[in-house]
């Protein structure tokens, strides 16, 4: 079992992007390349990993890559492509930030213009097409709710991480996500409990899922809450990053130990 | 200017459903009928207005109404229907709860089966088709993020209420929503500030929008937070309901005073 493609899911507001950005940073300590993909058109992953708004606004959305691939491959549906994406094409749609390669799914559209089906379809194809080395990993922050699952956008990932907070509604969404991810053939679905303020809240989440499903718990952070009005909120605090390093180790442990290129960060 | 069709929008986690349910309850005090529509397939509006999970699970999603209308109208696209929905058809897809008539857009689907475009298209048609009396109102809780706007689901509403919390990301989403709602020709877009804990947070929201755009502020509620693990969280607390009564009065005031059938609740 190799885990190199990870999707982050969950109800709106549970902290998907915060958890995704910390997981991305923690994998960047142990892996040569972390592909960080923002799969939410209402996006804020770039800011969370420290890419300034001016820079991220200039990054071409990957949905446009489809046209590019068609033009170099001589036409035809992208699904029939040779499953190797030309790195020079990929380069055009990636923003490198340390050893993080950031991509985003799509732009904000004009109201009433269209759905995001095309973006989701291409993103799904891209996930499948990406052939990764052992020291590379993809982490994808999905949109809120369940439509990326009904659409099958996350098909092809090795691990679905569902972020939950200690609320009934967020656990209900996680249950829906788990069922739908299983429909997609995603073999491994795990939980990260976020915004935990007490032992009672931790137990609430622990009891809501089967034993072994919860990868870790992240404490409620007053700092993150207080700083949310700040224009730049890139400074993921140490406690969060430490928590996600433990989650990373569990992911790698479950996967039977992926080879590392960079010797492992502190745990 | 008549305001009878209201959509509630905003970033995931800002409290859309909490605000929507309190607004629905406050309008139920002054209006003969409040059509409450859950436009999010990852739904929890029913629970928030006090409909038990067992009951809400049995309510037919409105997307199925399209087939029904076709069958009684002798076929043809629903868009070419005479713009009067047969009340006996509507009845089949509504659950009455006091003078609230609850409807939901769609069911949770199998993973990878399809998008929610069909549901959104029908919901948009339904909003347009509903001919309301002066003492009736529609309040629709939209899915998180912006896709219901790019799809145009909310086209035809008279007022878009965007819920924001005091965070940069939630204000950014509100800005996107406002631009896209204007694209859709929605003439009136207003803000409700939620989860306010300090004067500073209130000012942050006040300064983020043009004067007059903010309909009201709802204080952060520790009770709502603490009770979120509870299976039933129907008890909208008094403070929230009072706040939303004030919001209702502003909405009605801006609309030039809609006739009431029930003499007005406390403000």
Question: Could you give a short description of this structure?
Answer:
The first copy, chain A, has 267 residues and is of the alpha/beta class. Chain A is built from eleven helices and eight strands. The radius of gyration of chain A is 18 Å and the shape is globular.
Topology, element by element:
The structure is a homodimer of 267-residue chains.
Chain A: E1 5-9, H1 16-28, E2 33-39, H2 45-48, H3 53-57, H4 65-73, H5 87-93, E3 95-97, E4 100-104, H6 117-129, E5 136-142, H7 147-150, E6 159-164, H8 168-183, E7 188-196, H9 199-208, E8 214-219, H10 222-226, H11 238-254
Parallel strand pairs in A: 1-5, 1-6, 2-4, 2-5, 6-7, 7-8
Antiparallel strand pairs in A: 3-4
Helix pairs in contact in A: 1-11
How far the N terminus sits from the C terminus of chain A, by CA atoms, comes to 23 Å
Number of helices of chain A: 11
Work out the count of structural domains of chain A.
1
SSE order of chain A, one letter for each helix or strand: EHEHHHHEEHEHEHEHEHH
Helix content class of chain A: 25-40%
CATH-defined fold name of chain A = Rossmann fold
Chain pair forming the biggest interface: A-B, 52 and 52 residues
Structural class of chain A: alpha/beta
Q: Identify the overall geometry of chain A.
A: globular
Radius of gyration from the alpha-carbon trace of chain A, in angstroms: 18 Å
Report the sheet with the most strands of chain A, covering strand number, pairing sense and barrel closure. Answer: 8 strands, mixed
Q: Any idea what the CATH architecture of chain A is? A: 3-Layer(aba) Sandwich
Question: Largest beta sheet of chain A: what is the strand line-up?
Answer: 3-4-2-5-1-6-7-8
CATH class of chain A: Alpha Beta
Oligomer: homodimer
Q: What do we call the CATH homologous superfamily of chain A? A: P-loop containing nucleotide triphosphate hydrolases
The unreliable regions of chain A are 76-83, 257-261, 263-267
